[in-house]
Structure formats: C-alpha cells, structure tokens
Design goal:
about 400 residues; alpha+beta; Heat Shock Protein 90; 2 domains; 13 helices
Amino acid sequence: MSTTWRRRAMRSPRTTEVMKLVLLFAVAVAGALLSDWTMLGPRALWPAVALSALGCAALVLRHRHPVPVLVATALCAVVEGAMGYLMTPVLFSPLLAAQYSLSLRINRVAAWCGALVTAAVTVVPGIWRSELHSDWIIGIANPAAWVLLSTALGSYVRVRRDYAAARAEHTAREREEEARHRVVQERMRIARELHDVVAHHLALANAQAGTAAHLARADPEQAYDMLGRLSETTAAALRELKATVGLLRQDTDTHDGLAPAPGLEQLPDLVAACEAAGLDVTVTVEGQQGPLPPGLDLTAYRIVQEALTNVTKHAATRTARVRLARTPHALTLTVTNDADTTRPADRPGPGHGFGLLGMRERALATGGTFRAGSRPEGGFEVSCTLPLDSHEESTAP
C-alpha cells in the first residue's frame, strides 16, 4: 500500500473497513460463479451469495470476537461445500480472513489448534461428495492447505509486529538511558564549574581578609588596599557564578548579560588575584602561541585556577610556578609549589579533595592525562597533558 493510500485509510477507518468487506464479498461471489462454471449439474447462485454476505457481515466483529466469527465463517463455508460448490480459496475467502485475524489475536498454540479443527471441518464436504473422491487434492487437501497457510501468515505477521514493538520499546529505553546519561554528565560539568568558581574566589577572599586583619594595626593603608582588592575578588566571584548558573536557564530565557567562558587569556587576571591574596605566582610559557579551542581553553584555565586555589588553601609556602608548554599535538600544564619547613601544610581532611577530582575529570574528559602528588624534593605538583589534535579536528569547518 502506498503512503497516500495508507494515510487515507488511517483518516477514514470505517470507510476502509467497508471497502474491504465489499471487496471480499465480491471475491466470494466470484468463487461461487467459478464453481458454477466448472462443476457439473445446475445449482442456484443465491444461496452462495447469501452465505458469502453472512460470512462477510460476521467479519465486522472479528477484532472483538475472533473465535465466534471463525465458527460462523467456517459453517458458511461447509454449507457451501455441502451444496455442491467447489471449495476454493476464492469461495471461502471470508473463512481465510477470519482465520488470519484469529492468528493475530491469540497465542500461537491456540491459533494452530483452531486452524487444525477448521481444516478438518473444511474437508468434510470433500469426503462426503463422491464425485471428488477421484480428485482428492482439490476436494480435501486444497481447503485444508489454504486454512493452514492463512494461519501461518497470521502467525508470521504477529511475530513481526511483536518484534517491531519490542524493538521500539528497546529503542525508547536506550534513548531514555542516553538522555539520563547526558543529564548526569551535564550536572557533573556544572558541579565542577560551580566548585571551581566558588572554591577559588572564596579561598582568595579568605586569604585577603586574613591578610587585611593581620595588617590592620601594623599597616592600616595596606590593609585598606587589601580590603579594596577583597571587594574586587567577591565581585568577580559573583560575575562568574552568575555566568555559570546561567547554564541552567530554560531555552526560552534570554542570555543577555552572560559572560563568555574564561580561558588562558584571563591568566594574568588570575595571577593578579592570587598575588593580591599574598601568593607569588611565576608563569612560564614555552612553545608556539595561538588561540585554543574553546572547550580545551576552558579546561586548561580551570585546572590552573584550581591548582592555584589549592596552593592558596593548603600549601605551606606562598610561592607557586605555572608552566605552559605547547607543542603541535599537546598542551602540558604544570603547577608546582616548593616546600616550606617553617610552617606546616594544611592538608585536606577525609571526605575532601573535590578539587583534585574535578581537575582529573576535566583532563580525562578531553582525552588527556593527569597527575598530582608530592614532589621528591618537597612541595606539591599538578601536571596534565591535553591533546590538541582531536579538538582542532572537531572545530575545523
């Protein structure tokens, strides 16, 4: 059936049903005429027409009552055979339609049991009529074979429909799992962004506030200057927090006021903020220069930011070194701080350490490597390598 006719049938199901039954009735009447032309002896045509009409009328209920409809059409076919009509599939086409419909709606065992009983009933007129004994294929095997064939076709269609329904359900489950997985990934990404922004700026603000409190009596002017930088740090924290939370906006919301994602171009501002908190940062850049893909640029910036935040919060020294080494195929980031034996380091307690976990997840998400740990000569080092090839290919036009 073409797409146009299928759409028309779906729009007018009752009209389609009537057309099917009328066509089936015409086929059954044609079978009666064919039998009248091929069989010897005069016979009336109206009984076959009436029985065909009765069988086609019973098919209206085949969807709700398939078994009674099959019994009714089988009785009509047997009566036609007993009246001397040749049992051809054209003549008892209503019976075949009822058998096919039954195979679609009941289980396989019950469908085949009903098919065997129906096939046995249809061969009775052929056994009873002596003129068909010599041609048993037409009178006995032919009706039974068509009934069984109709059952096989219905069972096959039912299996295909069940398979299609199961596949559609499986596909729907896969889509739900994929959507759920994407939601979890997005939540983890936003959680990392929030952690990096809040932890970094709060650590700097805490360091600046502590330094200002320490200098309040000894050097009030410098303390006031530190408090001014503290307000700048909190303002920057609010801006980045607003931009990050803006990711949770609905599609219908406007994106006015959302700042672009930070990158290594903001590294001087990051170093200045750390120095305002009392951390002396040295940056070394090696290799070729140039813009990075946006995703990789954000990942590199966040890793450096979190590493410097950890130095501010936990390191025993007030110095840190940042090394950026870029090759045609990779970008290597290294953040180190030396040991200071005059004061103990503030190590994270149990249940902490989300900063290192977030840096590791960011590096691995880009296909890179990550390493963090104590140095043999003392201090702590964070190092990661981010590949450039895959990101450049993905952003190429």
